[in-house]
UniProtKB/TrEMBL annotation:
Entry protein name: YjiS-like domain-containing protein
YjiS-like domain residues: 34-67
Organism, as annotated: Aureimonas glaciei
Domain of life: Bacteria
Pfam families: YjiS-like
Organism lineage: Bacteria, Pseudomonadati, Pseudomonadota, Alphaproteobacteria, Hyphomicrobiales
Amino acid sequence: MSVNVDHGETILALSSRVARRVLALKAFALRWQQALSRGSALYRSRRQLLELSDAQLRDIGLTRREAAAEARRGFGGG
């Protein structure tokens, strides 16, 4: 039985290409998860502005109208 070196190299090249794609996909999934996490935290923070009293809003330099406008921006910030 002989080993075909060309075939083995082809398998290694394919394996390497697949491994790179898997790593790229994992990196993409991690960035997506981080973006969703940041967006979710931002959304919660914006909604919490609505729970502050007028005095608390004044302390952080916002009016009720500005707080409501910020809260409406929601998840994505747009």
